[in-house]
């Protein structure tokens, strides 16, 4: 049996979804698999009969409730926030919990076309037989409209304005016109769109006011405090370690605390004690980057070390994460090491030395 690299949420948590449906006695909206309360339990954690449902999104539960409530109406949902605030994860979990189908996705890029939002044609069949239903190539949004499910549109603000505006009529009229066939496709009840947009991309292709009005917008914040961010990092690193079968022990509490401290300080431009102003690097210093860095450190330790993450493994990951632009970030990282990390005493000494050696020119 071939092992896939990554399972969709509805497959990964199939047993939990089954138990939730089995014990769900509340009202289920038309087209949904679970009640809103059960969807909340699926994402935030809780109980379904005797089964413990794992919390998958660690954050403000009220935001999850608002997102679910939005999808019960005829309004689409837009999740916006800084990189690494789990917008895509929450989008996938919502689609998996509501319809057990998170696979209808459009990935927004500068190269995304209007055809990918609406429909295109199999040109061999088009030339042979003219425009027919069989020659139609349906977009994920088209398929979601026909099946009454959710389509996910990732990174909407990366798309050109004319591509974004192709959504306006779909979200307004809940129908899609196919002039070549003289047909209109109406959305089945349960259809909606969950979009995500990165606040760092403002000014790239700003969403029009007309398009924004078609969405209920929820802003996902960065983790509010140190403890919450550490919990998120630890949980995701352990999940990824199990998924990739990394031959290393999870990072110690002290190392996770140091990594999260560094990331929070570089992100905010200020030391945690508010005594030292810090130049932020040019790249993104998000919670997702911290998770990725620690996961890579585990792979490094498991393959080429003792299986226990050391300061040297962490330093190697930090160097690649922080110094994205060699001409600018090298100096920023050096100043942080000398002005902040070096002054923290013996507990930080090994990490400081390892980072300094890698950052030398």
Report on the architecture of this protein.
With 361 residues, the chain is α/β, with parallel strands linked by helices. It has two domains: 9-220, P-loop containing nucleotide triphosphate hydrolases (Rossmann fold); 226-358. 48% of the residues lie in helices and 13% in strands. It has 16 helices and eleven strands. The chain has helices at 9-12, 14-22, 36-44, 61-72, 87-99, 114-117, 123-129, 140-147, 161-173, 209-212, 226-244, 253-268, 287-304, 311-322, 326-341, 349-358, and strands at 46-48, 51-53, 76-81, 105-107, 119-121, 136-138, 150-154, 175-178, 183-186, 192-198, 215-220. Helix 14 (311-322) packs across helix 16. The longest helix is centred in the middle third of the chain and has 19 residues, at 226-244. The protein is globular, with a radius of gyration of 23 Å. The termini are far apart. The mean pLDDT is 91.
Outline: globular
Number of domains: 2
What is the name of the CATH topology of the largest domain?
Answer: Rossmann fold
Separation of termini? Answer: 48 Å
Percent of residues in beta strands: 5-15%
Mean pLDDT: 91
Largest sheet: spatial strand order: 4-7-10-3-11
Highest CATH level, the class of the largest domain: Alpha Beta
Number of DSSP strands? 11
């Amino acid at each position: 049996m071939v092992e896939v690299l990554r399972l969709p949420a509805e497959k990964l948590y199939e047993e939990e979804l089954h138990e939730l449906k089995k014990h769900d006695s509340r009202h289920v909206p038309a087209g949904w698999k679970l009640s809103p309360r059960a969807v909340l339990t699926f994402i935030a954690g809780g109980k379904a009969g005797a089964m413990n449902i794992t919390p998958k999104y660690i954050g403000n539960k009220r935001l999850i409730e608002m997102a679910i409530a939005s999808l019960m109406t005829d309004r689409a949902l837009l999740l916006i926030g800084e990189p690494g605030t789990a917008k895509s994860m929450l989008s996938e979990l919502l689609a998996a919990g509501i319809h057990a189908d998170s696979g209808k996705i459009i990935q927004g890029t500068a190269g995304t076309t209007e055809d990918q939002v609406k429909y295109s044609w199999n040109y061999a069949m088009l030339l042979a037989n003219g425009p027919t239903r069989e020659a139609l190539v349906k977009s994920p949004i088209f398929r979601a409209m026909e099946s009454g499910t959710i389509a996910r549109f990732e990174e909407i603000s990366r798309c050109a304005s004319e591509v974004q505006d192709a959504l306006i009529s779909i979200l307004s009229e809940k129908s899609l016109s196919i002039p070549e066939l003289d047909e209109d496709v109406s959305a089945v009840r349960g259809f909606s769109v969950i979009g995500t947009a990165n606040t760092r991309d403002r000014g790239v292709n700003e969403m029009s006011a007309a398009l924004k009005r078609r969405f209920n917008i929820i802003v996902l914040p960065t983790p509010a405090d140190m403890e919450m961010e550490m919990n998120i990092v630890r949980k995701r690193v352990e999940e990824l370690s199990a998924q990739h079968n990394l031959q290393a022990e999870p990072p110690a509490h002290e190392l996770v605390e140091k990594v999260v401290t560094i990331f929070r300080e570089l992100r905010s431009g200020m030391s945690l004690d508010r005594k030292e102003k810090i130049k932020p690097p040019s790249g993104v210093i998000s919670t997702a980057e911290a998770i990725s860095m620690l996961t890579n450190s585990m792979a490094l330790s498991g393959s080429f070390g003792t299986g226990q993450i050391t300061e040297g493994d962490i330093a190697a990951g930090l160097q690649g994460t922080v110094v994205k632009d060699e001409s600018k970030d090298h100096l920023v990282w050096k100043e942080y090491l000398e002005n902040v990390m070096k002054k923290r005493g013996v507990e930080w000494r090994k990490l400081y030395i390892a980072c300094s050696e890698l950052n030398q020119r």
